[in-house]
Write a structure and sequence with these properties.
Number of strands: 20
Transmembrane segments: 20-42, 73-92, 104-127, 134-155, 161-178, 183-199, 205-224, 236-255, 354-375, 382-399, 419-439, 471-492, 527-544, 551-569, 808-828
Oligomer: single chain
Pfam families: YfhO
Shape: globular
InterPro entries: Uncharacterised_YfhO
Organism: Hymenobacter cyanobacteriorum
Protein name: YfhO family protein
Number of helices: 30
Length: 845
């Protein structure tokens, strides 16, 4: 009988010691975020973000009301003559996930917090996949510093950035659930998806779920082949519960958004004809595919060029952003262009009408991604490759009509979104993840082998020997793409659509030739730059596999290479010139026109700013605006803009109570409109029409001061009528955003029309304290029958969707809190047989 050899017990590593690398990683991420945004953190500056400034303008009335009254304003009259605040500034007290977000951001300022969260969540994903901390840091840097993340912050797309930051948590939960521990994975998935949905950028969530769906399909096929379908079903059910919980926490926001979407310009128009393209022109009939969601041309306006896909590897292949600075050593400078013009030149020569910058994944990341196609296990490799390919195809938009028009028409909900180039966020997630997994596969400790003969070199470990040619193949492919781009550049003319405008503005042929030479230099310089980083990364992995570079220094160098590569390109699009000493509040200084209008202390009237009226919210900050700035205004109001306001129908502006016109003329900055009809008035006749198109057409013929028109197909109970309005009057007695009170004296039974936007789901009319029905007239306004006598009329915005949604959010938030606490307890108590933490085991082993 063989003797039993006792095995020495291994003491588990203390929890604090296992936590140290993770704490250091978090501190490193804080440092990186603060250094990148050092003007904010150390100099007290702000980031000049156009969309955030516009948001503040549109949200100002609702925010002021909430500050004074201590409750949310559910409606605002500051934009587009009135709209719900659902997609502007509304908060849901029942949704507690905001507190979790505040805890995760560590009190960092906005945008600094965005970048930190992107790094942190990427790190959590990669650690959950079993990567060692330093390699996970490299992957997190690749995820967080992808150029699109910084470019969208420069534009003010903070919610988009935050939704992207949380995406790795969702993917981490998905992977852990299917590949290892279903309970831990389900908790991570539920928390990640809750935070992702909370920030309310549904297009990013949609793309994230597409990537998740590909993974689930691949797992389903693997489970079917292995005979594990019952277990797969259990884990899928847990994820379904996590998704339901995430939706529940944000139910208030989702419910009100879903309700509003039926009425917004993201939904179909009731009109059967197109808007006229010129005043007096008859509208043309729509084609069959129009009016069912976002218009195709609108959705595909920002399509990534097929050739532009190379910017994932070479950022300045098409000249970078639409406007880029050129130095004093540029060809344009040498050609004699004055220096003050060099700070902003149209270097971009691609197909898009405008771009804030290309989507650049990083030369090192592209190299590692290609390496991952050789060395990462098949299921994960196929998933991330399929996601990347789908991402690119979707981003091509109109440049690949055969595929994308089919997807636009058939994929549920996809036709609600615009700017299809945004689909590259799928690749932005997939490529760094696969690259990090490849790096982890290469950078691992290997025991040295003894020489086979005295005086000879020790052979490479079998694993390293197998990996080395794959590393060289990946390097050769990536460098080869750069080389092909360099060679191809000599066949390009570097001409851009804007060049014709430059010629009209006085650009000489010599200057235009110099600009095109600068575009060529930008491309070729980035090719050499990319080759430098690819060569450096290849060298690190080569010397590590040769046994001449240890794991830790090799991983540290890779972190540095990824960081320097991406940081340098990011600064092109979000650099020092994007910061300002002026705060957002200081940007809203009243103009001379604003000051003149603000002297009018009337309870409510509207203002139209003729300077870009429907794409600015400066006016909304100070006044109740006919225009505004929002991507999802009411569809009926958009119809009114296209068919009446934009064609110069003064009667429509009168019925909207436009009292003041901001002209933009310094000599006469403001004009008062004597024809404004006020807050409410009695009409002498009500006309009926049989369709929305007829109602819209009637606005070109009626005088709204005395006539109103109703669509009998929508309000069949309303009949044509005439009224005696002699001696009748009505006026606004008190105003708040969602409660309007009027005093009316009717000499006879009559019909009052209100210069307020009709919105069926929420506004309730009260006559002397009793609820009464009201209806829509003049395509967008409210009307109310008023009996003879003196009355108090109130309109209150009391949407059931808000109350119901907030209650569901509160209940789900309580459940989420219990799930989160349970998950933390589970992680602390549950240990592997070795005594290590559950998270120490790799998902993809």
């Amino acid at each position: 009988m063989a003797a039993v050899v006792p095995v020495a017990s291994v003491s588990p590593v203390p929890l604090w010691r296992r936590a140290v690398p993770h704490v250091l990683a978090v501190l490193f991420f804080v440092l990186l975020a603060c250094l990148y945004f050092s003007p904010i953190v150390f100099d007290g500056k702000t980031l000049a973000q156009h969309d955030i400034t516009q948001f503040q303008g549109g949200a100002h009335e609702a925010q002021q009301y909430a500050a004074v009254m201590g409750k949310e304003a559910l409606w605002t009259n500051s934009m587009f003559s009135g709209m719900p605040t659902y997609l502007i500034s509304l908060h849901f007290p029942g949704d507690w996930s905001g507190y979790l977000q505040k805890a995760l951001t560590l009190g960092l300022p906005a945008v600094v917090a965005n970048l930190f969260l992107a790094l942190l969540c990427g790190y959590i994903l990669l650690v959950a996949l079993g990567l060692r901390p330093l390699v996970a840091v490299a992957g997190a840097v690749a995820l967080g510093f992808s150029s699109y993340n910084l470019a969208i912050l420069a534009a003010g797309h903070n919610t988009k950035s935050m939704a992207l930051a949380y995406a790795p948590l969702v993917l981490g939960g998905l992977l852990v659930t299917y590949r290892r521990d279903k309970w831990l994975g389900a908790v991570l998935f539920a928390v990640g998806l809750t935070l992702n949905v909370h920030v309310n950028h549904l297009q990013i969530t949609y793309y994230l779920l597409l990537l998740a769906a590909i993974f689930v399909v691949i797992e389903l096929v693997a489970a079917a082949r292995a005979g594990r379908l019952p277990e797969f079903a259990k884990r899928t059910a847990l994820l379904g519960l996590g998704a339901a919980l995430a939706v529940g926490v944000s139910f208030g926001r989702l419910y009100t958004t879903a309700e509003y979407s039926k009425y917004s310009n993201r939904g179909p128009s009731e009109l059967k004809s197109l808007a006229p393209t010129a005043p007096g022109q008859a509208p043309a009939p729509k084609t069959e595919d129009e009016g069912t969601g976002v218009d195709r041309d609108y959705a595909f306006q920002y399509s990534y060029g097929v050739g532009e896909t190379i910017t994932l590897l070479i950022p300045n292949f098409y000249g970078g952003a639409s406007s880029m600075p050129l130095g004093t050593s540029s060809n344009l400078a040498k050609a004699g262009l004055p220096q003050e013009y060099l700070a902003s030149m149209p270097t971009y020569w691609g197909q898009q009408s405008y771009t804030a910058g290309p989507v650049y994944m990083g030369a090192v990341v592209c190299f590692l991604f290609i390496l991952g196609l050789f060395v990462v296990e098949k299921r994960t490799r196929y998933w991330l490759l399929a996601g990347t390919i789908l991402s690119i195809l979707l981003a091509w938009g109109k440049n690949f009509e055969t595929f994308n028009y089919l997807i636009f028409d058939l994929l549920p909900g996809y036709n609600k979104f615009r700017a299809v180039s945004m689909a590259l966020v799928i690749a932005q997630l997939a490529m760094p993840i696969l690259g990090a997994l490849a790096l982890s596969r290469v950078l691992r400790p290997r025991a040295p082998l003894a020489p086979t003969l005295p005086g000879t070199k020790a052979p490479l470990p079998a694993d390293a020997s197998a990996l080395l040619p794959k590393v060289l193949y990946a390097g050769a492919i990536t460098a080869g793409l750069c080389g092909l781009a360099y060679i191809a550049s000599f066949s390009f003319d570097f001409a851009a659509p804007i060049d014709g405008e430059l010629t009209k503005q006085g650009f000489t042929p010599e200057l235009l030739s110099a600009l095109r030479a600068d575009r060529a230099d930008l491309l070729r310089n980035d090719v050499w730059r990319g080759l430098l980083f690819i060569g450096a990364a290849l060298g690190v992995l080569y010397f590590h596999l040769k046994g001449q570079l240890k794991v830790v220094p090799a991983a540290a160098i890779m972190v540095l290479l990824v960081l320097v590569d991406l940081w340098g390109v990011d600064k092109r699009y979000l650099g020092e010139n994007k910061f300002q000493s002026q705060t957002i509040a200081e940007e809203f200084q009243p103009t001379a026109a604003d000051q003149m209008i603000l002297q009018d202390k009337g309870l409510s009237y509207r203002v139209l700013n003729m300077q870009n009226p429907f794409n600015e919210a400066q006016t909304s900050y100070f006044h109740k605006s006919i225009g505004g700035y929002h991507g999802a205004k009411l569809r009926r109001y958009q119809d009114l803009i296209e068919r009446q306001i934009s064609t110069g129908n003064q009667q429509v502006l009168n019925m909207l109570n436009m009292r003041y016109l901001i002209t933009g003329d310094a000599k006469q900055p403001v004009q008062r409109n004597p024809g404004a009809l006020g807050n409410a008035w009695f009409v002498s006749s009500l006309k009926t029409v049989a369709s929305p198109d007829a109602e819209m057409a009637a606005l070109s013929a009626i005088s709204p001061a005395t006539e109103a028109v109703v669509d009998a197909s929508k309000f069949p109970q309303q009949k044509a009528a005439t009224y005696d309005i002699a001696g009748s009057s009505i006026s606004l007695a008190s105003y708040s955003p969602d409660v309007l009170k009027y005093r009316a004296t009717a000499a006879h039974d009559g019909l009052a029309v209100f210069s307020e936007i009709y919105y069926a789901d929420g506004w309730q009319a009260y006559l002397d304290g009793k609820p009464v029905p009201h209806f829509r007239v003049d395509y967008v306004l409210r009307a109310l029958p008023v009996p003879a006598g003196s009355h108090t009329i109130e309109f209150k915005f009391e949407p059931k969707a808000y109350a119901v949604g907030n209650g569901v959010s509160l209940a789900a938030s309580v459940v989420l809190l219990l799930v989160l606490v349970g998950g933390i307890v589970y992680v602390v108590r549950r240990k592997e047989r070795s005594g290590d933490e559950l998270l120490d085991a790799p998902v993809l082993a």
